[in-house]
Structures are given as structure tokens and as C-alpha cells.
Amino acid sequence: MCGLKKILWVISTILAVSISGYAFVQYFILGPSKSGFVITKIQSGEVLNQLWYTMLYIHAFSSLLALVIGPFLLSRKIRNKNLERHKLIGKLYFICIFFGGLTGIYLAFKATGGTVATLGFGFLSIFWLATGSMAFYRIRQRQIQLHRKWMIRNYLLTFAAVTLRIWLLIFILIDGLENYITSYMVISWLCWVPNLLVAELYVRKTGTKLKSDLLDQKFS
């Protein structure tokens, strides 16, 4: 089981770093005006003002940074090597979630796909902020196990940046660019709801195992 966890950690970390690198080049080197996401919005007749672009930059930077550092926070091995560094990086992660979540709510109101996409990305940002707040609260209370569970939930929502692009590629290959807006409406929910369900199943499974281990130790 430990081997499988390590493989999943490596794969998810590679995906997170790859998507972050791609998005960084797209938004901060080439410029957002050259991204398909922005081009589609402009072609559909939307007027994007300077405030929208500012929010996009803040959202992109904070979300991508959280996406990259998240796997290293969840790694027990890395955490145990340097607890002080873990705390410092953790604070940076929560700052990223705060700014990423707030700007995400703003951007959701102008999401491609209308009301369906607005609700999808809006709820993603709200749950992202809520799970991050719970993770922060639990660690402040020194409830480490509960903190870790909320961090798992939160990072799987952060990982929506990866799953969104994977689903987008799949939908384009299957349904074509001509149905992009309809696909985007579906993806606004599909990119994070399954992630959260997976996180919840994992948290419940590991929670049950932890209780079982404690009972075994108590009666052994």
C-alpha cells in the first residue's frame, strides 16, 4: 500500500508541476491574451476590463503556487525532516488559498458557460476557502489528524486546476471545439466534485484504519 501511495504522490506531483509550469508560461510570459481561455471569451463578445485581468493574474499566481507546494506539505517524510519549514510553507499555502479563493469567486461571475459555470466555479472557490479555513483552524487547535484530513480535502480541490485541463482535453477530443462552451459548463463541476468525493472516501478509509490501529494497540 505504501508503494502505491508513493506512486500516486509522484504522479500527482509531476502533473501539478507540469500544469503549473504550462500555465505560468501561458499567463505570465506569453500573456493571457494569447491563451485559448481568454480568446474564447473575447470571441464570444465579452468585455474584459483591467480589474478582471488583475483578478486573473492574482488567481493564477496564487493557485499555481498552492498547486506546486501542496504535495510537499502532504508528504509525511518531507514534513518530518523539517517541521519548521513545513509550518512556514504551510502558511504560504494558506495565503495562496485565501487570495486564490476570493479571486476565484469574482472570476466565477464571468465564467464561460453562464449560470451553470458560475455556480460550478463559485462553489469550488467557496469549498476551497472553507476546507482551507478548517485545515488552518484544526492546526491552530493542535488537532493534527483532523488538520491533515482537511488538508487532503483542500488539496484535492486545489488539484482541480489539473483535472480541469485533463477533462477539457478529453471533451475537445471527443466533442470538438465547436461544443466548447457546453463542455466547459459540464467541466465547471466535473473538475472538482469527483476530486472532493475521492478525498472524502480516502479520509474516511484512513480514519477507520487509524481507529482500528488504536484499538489493536489498546487491547494488545
Automatic annotation (TrEMBL):
InterPro entries on file: DUF2306_membrane
Q: What is this protein called?
A: Membrane protein (DUF2306)
The residues that cross the membrane are: 7-30, 50-72, 92-109, 115-136, 156-174, 180-203
Task: For this UniProt record, give its keywords in alphabetical order, as a comma-separated list.
Answer: Membrane, Transmembrane, Transmembrane helix
Keyword RNA-binding listed: no
Domain of life where this protein originates: Bacteria
Give the signal peptide, or none.
Answer: none
* Record organism: Halobacillus karajensis
